Amino acid sequence: MGQLSQFAPFLLMFVVIYFFMIRPQQKRAKNEKEFESNLKVGDKIVTKSGFHGKIAELAETTVVIETMSGKLKLERSAISLELSAALNKKA
């Protein structure tokens, strides 16, 4: 019983770290991956670097977006979930 009470603070620390740091990050990564797979031609998006545009073409790992100044080819992971959601909420 004495050994269990010695390791209880470490166990409690691990549980707290898991629920406040690891689990939310895993959830966010899952949402990002789902968002990337649900993209379709014609969606209005914002990239993580701030480019606004509309999806013109989709490939397995890349996307071509149409902006006011032309077309840009980007990685799918460069599209921001939060900024695109905010853009689509306004419209």
Automatic annotation (TrEMBL):
<dbReference type="InterPro" id="IPR003849">
    <property type="entry name" value="Preprotein_translocase_YajC"/>
</dbReference>
<keyword id="KW-0811">Translocation</keyword>
<keyword id="KW-0812">Transmembrane</keyword>
<dbReference type="Pfam" id="PF02699">
    <property type="entry name" value="YajC"/>
</dbReference>
<dbReference type="GO" id="GO:0005886">
    <property type="term" value="C:plasma membrane"/>
</dbReference>
<keyword id="KW-1133">Transmembrane helix</keyword>
<keyword id="KW-0813">Transport</keyword>
<comment type="similarity">
    <text>Belongs to the YajC family.</text>
</comment>
<protein>
    <recommendedName>
        <fullName>Sec translocon accessory complex subunit YajC</fullName>
    </recommendedName>
</protein>
<dbReference type="GO" id="GO:0015031">
    <property type="term" value="P:protein transport"/>
</dbReference>
<feature type="transmembrane region" description="Helical">
    <location>
        <begin position="6"/>
        <end position="22"/>
    </location>
</feature>
<keyword id="KW-1003">Cell membrane</keyword>
<keyword id="KW-0472">Membrane</keyword>
<keyword id="KW-0653">Protein transport</keyword>
